UniProtKB/TrEMBL annotation:
SMART domains: AAA (SM00382). GO terms for molecular function: ATP binding. Coiled coil: none annotated. This is ATP-binding cassette domain-containing protein. It comes from Amycolatopsis minnesotensis. The keyword Transport applies. Residues 22-252 form the ABC transporter domain.
């Protein structure tokens, strides 16, 4: 982690009075000679929504699997709910809820049966899981589908059911790995609403996501991972303030014209980025920069002034090159 985050909220040793649901120091995960997680320090406070962002291969899922006690750490210290995953994994898993990237529901069972059967794995009584299933179906807005098989349900319904199933044991900590991947906007927003409700009830959330708007909406704090390391940590607004500007001016030009246009714009912004289809000017005052560009005879095909987003931060820290 960068030195500027030392002593920041959530970093190991920052505030011993804040009880950490997850605490890692120098956490490492190796697969043979490949080091997927390379010395991660992180602490997740009770009751917060904490995010892991990063490109493919950054180490997010490997970190989540160690926290979920399904993959042993190779080195470093890790405590989950104050317990050591190496020796107390079953105790930790009994208090966790896990939502995997891919739904692993039993497609031949009904919605209700998926919840009741899963609840029995935790040793809960039949009467308890019946009541809990009714409660969770209402929470996930699936009551009217209670006795239907899972297979024909929509992707959004299956995702809501997977989240509902993860809550059968009333977990203190809920791990969500890419919870809304592949869902349409309406389904994503409905899931966000369910997760907000869980957080308001005191459930601690740890989320990995590729969606920057999702991270901005859901996460109180987050870390950006790249190549197995944490490269930045903070709240979404903190990260935007630290690594970007208040506004971004996007100028689109005809093909092949953006390089020459950008050469006369360097002094109008704190940073200028030339992309294949447009030029981005990172500035405090987008409209003022646009007026000055026009005064210099710059005539883009179109222009847009927008606020900086977490996506701007993410791309600056991890690059625009596709990682397979």
């Amino acid at each position: 982690m960068e030195s500027e985050t030392a002593g920041a909220p959530g970093v190991i040793g920052a505030d011993p009075e804040q009880a950490a649901m997850v605490r890692a120091e120098g956490l490492v995960k190796r697969f043979g000679e490949f080091e997927a997680v390379r010395g991660v320090d992180v602490a997740v406070r009770k009751g917060e929504a904490f995010g892991f962002l990063g490109p493919n291969g950054a180490g997010k899922s490997s970190t989540m699997r160690m926290i979920a006690c399904v993959s042993p750490r190779s080195a470093g210290e890790l405590r989950v709910l104050g317990l050591d995953p190496d020796t107390e994994g079953p105790k930790i898993r009994a208090r966790l809820g896990v939502v995997p990237q891919q739904d692993n529901l039993d497609s031949e069972l009904t919605v209700r049966q998926n919840l009741q059967v899963y609840g029995r794995y935790f040793g809960l009584s039949r009467a308890h899981v019946r009541r809990k299933a009714d409660e969770l179906m209402a929470f996930a807005q699936l009551t009217d589908r209670a006795d239907e098989e899972v297979e024909p349900l929509s992707g959004g319904m299956k995702r809501r059911l997977t989240i509902a199933r993860s809550l059968v044991n009333d977990p203190e900590l809920l791990l969500l790995d890419e919870p809304t991947t592949g869902l349409d906007p309406q389904a994503r927003h409905l899931l966000w609403d369910r997760l907000f409700r869980l957080k308001s009830q005191g459930v601690t959330l740890i989320i990995t996501t590729h969606y920057m708007d999702e991270a901005e909406q859901l996460c109180d704090r987050l870390v950006v991972m790249d190549a197995g390391r944490i490269v930045a940590e903070g709240s979404p607004s903190d990260l935007i303030s630290r690594y970007s500007t208040r506004e971004v001016l996007e100028l689109r030009f005809a093909p092949g014209e953006q390089e020459s246009a950008a050469r006369g714009l360097d002094d109008l912004a704190e940073r200028v980025e030339v992309l294949p289809d447009r030029v981005l000017l990172y500035t405090r005052q987008g409209e003022a920069a646009l007026e000055r560009a026009h005064a210099r005879g710059v005539r883009p095909v179109s222009s847009l002034v927008r606020r900086s987003t977490l996506e701007d931060v993410f791309l600056r820290l991890t690059g625009r090159t596709l990682v397979d």
